[in-house]
Amino acid sequence: MIVLGIVLMVIGFIAKIAILWGIGIVVLVIGLILLILGAMGRAVGGRKHYY
Question: Where are the alpha helices (DSSP H) in the chain?
Answer without folding.
Answer: 2-15, 18-39
